[in-house]
Amino acid sequence: MRIDKRFFAQIDRAFSSVDLPVSVYTAAGEQVYPIPVKEIREEEIPLLAWENDLAHLGSMTYMHLPNIKGMVVGIPNYIPNNVEILQMAAVLLTTLARAIDRDMDRDEVLRKVLLDGLDGTELETLAMEHGLELVRGRCAVLFQSAGDAKAVTSTLREVFSGSANDLVVQVGRNSTVLLRSMENTHYDELIELVLAVMETVNEETGVALMAGIGEMQTELGHMSRSLAEARHAMEIGRLFRPGGKVYSYRSLLIERFMCEIPQDIAKRYYEVLFNKKNARVFNEEMVQTIDKFFDCHLNVSEAARQLYIHRNTLVYRLDKVQKATGLDLRTFDDAITFKMLRMLGRVNEAQRGG
Q1: pLDDT truncated to tens, each residue of the chain (354 aa)?
Q2: What are the phi and psi torsion angles at 50 (to 5°)?
Q3: Which of 5, 153, 203, 260 is the most buried (most CB within 10 A)?
Q4: Is 106 exposed, middle or buried (0-12, 13-18, 19+ CB in 10 A)?
């Protein structure tokens, strides 16, 4: 472990914030916390008799930290649970020392927050060092590309260079995350922004992107949850809405619900309609017809126009579905029933690994 002035400064910040009633000394006996008004040498520290890394002298109890160059923490005996408090202080010091020893830059800190769930005192210390706000409403936007994300990350940083509140970091070979500040921004506006940014990136780099958007979190230490939601939104979106560009966790509520239905139940209800008896009805042409009809919000004339077929042809096909299944897709309730049962087929395939 590397012990330097930066480490001592972070000890002061961390211990002041948690208000632990302890003193911290180097192995040579120099008090580093609380910072004394005058330089004080605790000459007895190097001479303490240690037993299981604990020692007692006068009104103080001390704990030896061999993993941090023999540093020592001390606490007055009158403090209740003083040994437990020393153990907490030891954990805190070890965490700080490891962070300093790794010498993480800003991107490494953000990756650790997003991928490892970095939180607590270690995050507070690193955030202070790198000028990261701990409290600000942000959404995680995950951008995925087919190739290396370096050019994507660079372009995104240029796009958001004018905002100190928006953070961009590459989290994988093909993945970049934007932590977008939601101050004065509505969720629908965020989706429009993401689409515009994706177009800009494509123009600048030639790379096509797909994006997932998680829910807003107000604490930096909780942004890993928003990123997990963004990933989940992309997984569900590709399953139920293939061909999309932006998948929002918030707008996939029904799809998320469907994914929680057990496989055996999903299979049973799916086969109520989609079985061998109805296989000839639901051929490729019929499926495309129904999809377009739904895309046109059950508008027969518009769907027929987009399918380049006569209106009566579309009506004939819908009548054929009604005769086979008992569902009239021109009515809202029956259309919803059909769509949900069809979605269960995708759930069943996904759960089988298909």
Answers
A1: 445 556 777 777 777 777 778 888 887 777 878 876 554 445 577 788 888 889 988 888 999 887 777 788 899 998 889 899 999 888 888 777 766 655 568 898 899 899 988 777 778 877 887 889 999 999 999 999 988 899 999 999 999 998 889 999 999 999 999 999 998 888 889 999 999 999 999 999 999 999 999 999 999 999 999 999 999 999 999 888 888 999 999 999 999 998 888 888 888 888 888 888 888 899 989 999 999 999 999 999 999 999 999 999 999 999 999 999 999 999 999 999 999 998 888 877 766 654
A2: -90, 140
A3: 153
A4: middle
Residue with token string 């494509």: 202
Question: How far is the C-alpha of 213 from the C-alpha of 192, rounded, in Å?
Answer: 12
Domain ranges of the chain: 5-102, 107-256, 261-351
What 3-state class would DSSP assign to 303?
helix
What are the contacts of 346-354 at 24+ separation with CB within 8 A? 346/239, 346/240, 347/239, 347/258, 347/259, 347/261, 347/263, 347/266, 348/263, 348/266, 348/267, 348/270, 350/239, 350/259, 351/263, 351/266, 352/263
Query: Tokens for 310?
Result: 């006569």
Residues contacting residue 178 through CB under 8 Å, at least 6 positions apart: 140, 141, 143, 156, 160, 166, 167, 168, 197
Question: β-strands 167-172, 135-145: how paired?
Answer: unpaired
CATH architecture of 107-256: 2-Layer Sandwich (3.30)
Provide φ and ψ at 74, rounded to 5°: -130, 155
HSE-up of residue 277 (Cα within 13 Å, Cβ side): 7
- Give residues with Cβ within 8 angstroms of 308, minimum separation 6: none
φ, ψ for residue 331, nearest 5 deg = -100, 145
Quick check: helix, strand or coil at residue 267? Answer: helix
CATH topology of domain 261-351: Arc Repressor Mutant, subunit A (1.10.10)
Phi, psi (degrees; rounded to nearest 5) at 140: -85, 125
Burial of 323 (0-12, 13-18, 19+ CB in 10 A): exposed
